[in-house]
Amino acid sequence: MVAYKNERPLRVIINFTHLLQMLHIHFLVYLLLTILPTLCVLPEDDSSCYHQCFHQPAEACPSPESMCRCRQLPNCKRAAVCCDVNKFTLTEGLGCGNINADGQVEALHIRNATLDALNLTQPVWRRLRYMTITNGQINSVVGEFAKHTIVSCLNLSSNGIRKFEQRSLVNLFNLSYLDLSYNNLSEVPRFKKEGIVTLGVSDNPSMLCSSLMDTLKRTEINFDNDNSTFCLSSPTNFQWFKTIDRLPLSQVIGLYELEENCLENCTCEPYRLEFVMDKPPIFSVAVNCSGIKLLSLPTHLPASTIYLNVTNNNITSLRELSDNSYQYLRHLYADNNQISSIQPLEGTKFMNNFDVLSLRNNKIKTFETYLLSNIKFYRTNNGRRINLGLNKLHCDCKTAKEFKRKRVKVVFKIVELVVAVVETLEHIYSKVIVIKQKWHVYARPHHMLQTEEEVLDIVEDDPSTSTREIARQSWLLTKLDHFPDYEEIQCEDMDVKITELDQTKLCQSQQDWTDYIYYIITAEVLLLGGLIAKVSYDYWVFKTAGYLPWPASKMPKLPCDWLCE
């Protein structure tokens, strides 16, 4: 009875050990049937199979005498190669080479294919993991890969491809490497949006930078051969330039990073392409921060910022223009803000280099005309302009004087230009000689002009009405170019435009007794002269006639009369 009780546990242990042995045997059989066959895909030297999308040399092609232009490789049982095919021989070769959609071939390299169009809808592509078509002549790629296509590495380089259909590659969700180099593509075809894709588009002479930019925005890209990748910027497809330029990929990536890392709530875009001798081209930047409730000008602008738009904010000062990030700024639009003065512009690089300064509809009260007087309006710089419309200035005698002085300086430059034109018309001698003599005094070279006041004196001392009229009209024409909204600048306390200020009215001082001091002095001098004349006359009569005339004869005798006697 005791032996029976000990025998039963022993029998259970033996059965459990037998079960473990059976499971171990089944596991070994599973490994033999599943894992080992997949190892057969790799050749003895696996670098010749799956290196860069399974690329095979010309020596791997079928012999020229072979009727079947495709064959499976002996050292890579799931890899095949096709060579020197066209539309018909490719279809026949895939069939005779036993390359079909059953998954027996996962890596395929087609060399020297001559096709008008590569059709991607064929079922045979669906089970491929590595698909390479190189060194051929293919005009376009049509159709699209079927859904659930497992291609992860696609190499279509060196085929002269010009165009892809829009949805050709959208179903390649496993795609990790795409080589489209050495073709004639102008646009990068669309592909999956998730994951990192290594993309090669070098040596496509017609590739547009706008397409590369869109590709960077759609997915995360690592570029292959980026140092030899260039693109074109065209006026129709890439609206940054007026001409077509060949740009390196690094510039496009820089522009993409510029947009991604722009100031908060602002937009950054390329403005134009700057060419510097012996240096690569550099993009200048346009920053738009309009309508975002800024209280001051933004600082730390992107490098090479040349254009800044901060309209429709609550900015009160321009002092940030002295920041180093503003050193290349040429265009500043700060309309519809609360700016009260342009004095912070003094001493900034912007005042020497600017093309456009727009401060319309602000709170500017003081017109620092000495700043504007120092602006150089060169003949070749007709685009330089200042917009100050809808500002109501505090107008006084100083404003009228300084504004007049500014006008005379502009007149001088216009007159100089007029004389230059006149001198080119010397064949009309009878008309030219009069004008030339009339304006010669005003057209001296700038280095011969002593001061700005000298020009002012020349114009004011000229009694000729026609000269003043010509000067006034010339200034208006110039002001239309550089101050296009001058008619909208008005005075704060009076309903008058700044261009209509009358210096004689604004420069009148309040009258007091000192205004009559010259009259009083004149009267005293006249009275003193009359008194001296009367005394002299009385003395002459007394010496000649012996009596004093009236009223000296009626005057009482004084103690000091004895001195006269």
TrEMBL record:
Keywords: Leucine-rich repeat, Membrane, Repeat, Transmembrane, Transmembrane helix. The keyword Electron transport does not apply. It comes from the Eukaryota. Signal peptide: none annotated. This is Protein halfway. The chain crosses the membrane at residues 12-33. Pfam families: LRR_8. The keyword Transmembrane helix applies. InterPro entries: Leu-rich_rpt, LRR_dom_sf, SLRP.
